[in-house]
Amino acid sequence: MIRIEARPQPSAVMAYATPVLAVVLTMIFGGALFAVLGKDPFEAIATIFWEPIFGEFAFFYRPQLLIKGAPLVLIAIGLALGFRAGIWNIGAEGQYIVGAICGAGAGLAFYPTESVLIFPLMVLAGALGGWAWAMIPGVLKVKFGTNEILVSLMLVYVAEQLLASMSLGLLKNPEGFGFPGSRNLQQYPSAHNAEIIAGTGMHWGVVAALIAVIFAYVLLTRHRLGFAIRVTGEAPRAAKFGGVNPGRLVLFCLGMSGLLAGLAGMFEVAGPAGQISIDFNVGYGFTAIIVAFLGRLNPLGIVAAGLLMALTYIGGDIAQSQLGLPAAAIQVFQGMLLFFLLALDVLTNYRVRFGAAEVA
Amino acid sequence: MDLSAINPILLIAAMIAAATPILLAAIGELVVERAGVLNLGVEGMMITGAVCGFIIAVNTGSPTVGFIAAAVGGAVLSLLFAFLTQVALANQVASGLALTLFGLGLSSLMGQSYVGIKPPRAEATPLGPLAEIPIIGPILFGHDLMVYLGLGIVAATWAVLKFTRMGLVLRAVGENHDAAHALGYKVKRIRTLAILFGGACAGLGGAYISLIRVPQWTEGMTAGVGWIALALVVFASWKPWRVLLGAYLFGGITQLQLNLQGAGVAIPVEYLAMSPYIVTIIVLVILSADKSRAPGSLGRTFHASG
Amino acid sequence: MKLTTLLASAALALGLAGGAMAQDKTKVGFVYVGPVGDGGWTYEHDQGRLAVEAEFGDQVETVFVENVAEGPDSERVMTQMALDGADLIFTTSFGYMDPTNNVAAKFPDVKFEHATGYKRLHPNVSTYSARFYEGRAIQGHIAGNMTKSNIIGYIGSFPIPEVIRGINSAYVHAKKVNPDVEFKIIWVYTWFDPAKEADAAKTLIDQGADVVLQHTDSTAPQAAAQEAGGVVTFGQASDMGQYAPFPRVSSIIDDWAPYYIARTRAVMEGTWESQDTWDGIGAGMVGIGEITDAVPADVREEALALKAALADGSYHAFTGPLNKQDGSPFLADGETADDGTLAGMNFYVEGIEGDIPQ
């Protein structure tokens, strides 16, 4: 009989060992999958994990890791704050979209005026857009006790339709021959979120992600509010007695996560993506939820998890083109990685006991 | 504009057929959520059901066997979720999202050699003269068997939840797992069974798309129906009959929208498409003031300590 | 995050193993927006890729990445292909337009071919597209003859010039043979969503359409028509021959193979130049699938004659006199539409009811 029982203290060893173990297990099972598909498993895994960081063209892929990882980290940091307090914003995808629409809209409103004020204004608009979108579930929860998981999820679909409407209507490029999609902000210098140092992948979104990580780290470890967040998550009743205002905390956590998701969307649309289009969102908001959990809701862990996810995307695309692996196989591989990471996490907080339960 | 082109009888009949996949997936998820588990992997289980059902139906020539395989396929995938959340105590939101990712990938791998094949045709239900009755006939009796099975599952779920001990236990587990545990109920076992039921229903819903509604196999063909099913459960405030109503409403808005376009009415498609979600949010707000609300333990991990 | 502390020696060892492949082969990359198993748009591009392999055998190596999101992901994939030594890269979705030009700027020695776009900012970028509206003319002709209810349903994806052009072309030619014909247009706002396409087809059929044309990529409308019985359809993007001889009576096939082979050859021979290709039936880029026996013999003959006239250029699908929907003149008697007007077409021709959604 196998049982699991709670550890008195989370195991520090396991906290570091389980992610490594999960990656190893994924390599074994994923390798088996690739072998079944008739590919050399060692080559495939080396292509996914090694090639982007240490391969011949690492000088190109390493910056790409930042570009792909930054929005994930930025969103996941905000989500983690809420998750720690037991506040479940799963609608970051919607906040990301609205942030992008607001940010791009603010910039395009001034087209073709050039001014140094435009980009800061876009940042502000993007942040506000995401914040406002997240405040809908926030206010509803505080005022009516409405479940924020469901409201925030519903608002993702509303945002997607809004995005379609914007790309086909209001924000459509007037010089685009009737095709859907806005003007390309990369070609509008005042609005372009360009690389700060060319070739490094370091754009303002990456900087924002780093600031957010430091901010979250300090908040959670040093600040009273961070303490309130942790206590609320672990012992809601104690928090209440301790003077934590739950309503305010809900508004803060949802607002913060929406703000960061909105920023991520804005930096993405002004930089790497360049334009609002019907398929602008590629699921960063949902992937970030996974990233937040893989990072154990810890700011530094989230950075690692975000880069790991980015690595599997980039390495996966390389494996597709170099080895002819189907995209679906990469998807299954990522799914396995997530399963193992999630499943093995249990070892951090619990231990597995073999044998019959001892009589109490 | 020519509204007379819209035949209300055919419109209602089309709504009923269009609602079936959402209905099947949603009633399964309803049971899962009543047991206190939030499984966001509905889309992944649906698409897996769609491909399993398709492969088996093509190889056996029998849509019925295909549907059984779809239910099994969906349930097997959900077992993975059950393991993660009930045994390994992983977070349900993250596990559900991972399940969708995995299901989408797995299904397209499995279905690679089935693109462009026509599945065997599902027979219409032989209700004979009933279907000939004017107005009611085409609306109520002109459908395939799965439509009636869907209705049957809704009715059965309602009856079981309301009148049986099993239903009582399930609800108790969902409302307060600690109390249910203290009363001696096997929380994890009950939840695992609920998850399996949800997976099987989602699988059936997926197969309805690949075997009857479309019918063909293509990657990603469920195209977000699973997410709508999740919204629907909330919209229905976790009550089986309201799931039915909601499924017709959700399916109906799409049908109505298409019909109005065909009749030449200029409508803002995007805004109509977002309306079910906005309505769901409004319903949620109204419900929050009402007594009927989300199961108490929804989404929380249970581990018997001590 | 110690990206800088690298195991330099290990990197070198592996880099060598992965890099230097046979240089004498011409390497051709394809970037796909959907899965190769979509049975439509991406599937046909992949058929073109396979045709290139079949044509040149050992002289070429082709690579592809499927399901590539438009935006930064596509830019990365193109760069990766260029780094891996691709000589020619086909990017097969409109949304890849700016990424293609961005990457082309960085790799002046690599040739880029962007499908359905209009931007050629660098001498190593070409654009190509197909005159699908020529095929629509033939469909319109058959549809106008075949309909008994005089109602033709049309499933549109997005209200963009490409789709509007097709609707106009089909309408003009249906009207020519059947003055009573009426078009019912439903926009589904997706290129590929089988369930929604099926619903749209059923709606059109329920509203009396007995011919359904589609500008979406799945076979769902075909199946809906078969279920309803007595409804005529046409294959879109690929032949959809599994629904022949009825309801599918003919089809428009995206045949990229001749173009892909020609452009690959141009790269091999060093004759590749930046150009804008807009080919139709004549060049073989638009294929017309077999017209089945379900179509009366005389109609089939006319349709084939129309096809021949479109192919040799003796007839243009948009030939005046034609008016716009609002009654203002579009083309004078005998005048043909120029490519600029066609490329940006954002109006219906006279006779089509309803508004283009904005």
Give an overview in words:
The complex is a heterotrimer of chains A (360), B (306) and C (358). Chain A is mostly helical. Chain A has 15 helices and two strands. Chain A has helices spanning 12-36, 41-49, 51-54, 58-84, 92-109, 118-144, 148-168, 204-222, 224-234, 236-241, 246-270, 284-294, 299-323, 327-344, 346-349; strands spanning 2-6, 350-354. In chain A, strands 1-2 form a two-stranded antiparallel sheet. The two termini of chain A are 17 Å apart. The mean pLDDT of chain A is 87. Chain B has a single domain (3-116, 136-289), classed as ABC transporter involved in vitamin B12 uptake, BtuC, CATH 1.10.3470. In chain B, helix 2 runs antiparallel to helix 3 (63-87), helix 6 packs antiparallel against helix 11 (240-262) and helix 10 (225-235) packs parallel to helix 12. The longest helix of chain B has 27 residues, at 8-34. The mean pLDDT of chain B is 85. Chain C folds into two domains: 23-130, Rossmann fold; 132-254 and 286-343, Rossmann fold, CATH 3.40.50. Chain C has a six-stranded parallel sheet with strand order 2-1-3-4-5-11, with helices on both faces. Chain C has a six-stranded mixed sheet with strand order 7-6-8-9-10-12, with helices on both faces. In chain C, strands 13-14 form a two-stranded antiparallel ribbon. Chains A and B meet through helix 6, helix 7, helix 12 and helix 14 of A and helix 3, helix 4, helix 10 and helix 12 of B.
Q: What percentage of residues of chain C falls in helices of 4 or more residues?
A: 25-40%
**What gap, in angstroms, lies between the N and C termini of chain B?**
70 Å
Distance between the termini of chain C: 47 Å
The named CATH superfamily of the largest domain in chain C: Response regulator
Q: How many runs of DSSP E, i.e. beta strands of chain C?
A: 14
Oligomer: heterotrimer
Q: What is the string of SSEs of chain C from the N terminus onward?
A: HEHEHEHEEHEHEHEHEEHEEHEEH
Rg estimate of chain C, integer Å: 22 Å
Number of domains of chain C: 2
Trace the largest sheet of chain C across and list its strands. Answer: 2-1-3-4-5-11
- Total individual domains of chain B: 1
Largest sheet features of chain C: 6 strands, parallel
* Average pLDDT for all residues of chain C: 87
The CATH topology name of the largest domain in chain C reads Rossmann fold
Write the CATH architecture name of the largest domain in chain C: 3-Layer(aba) Sandwich
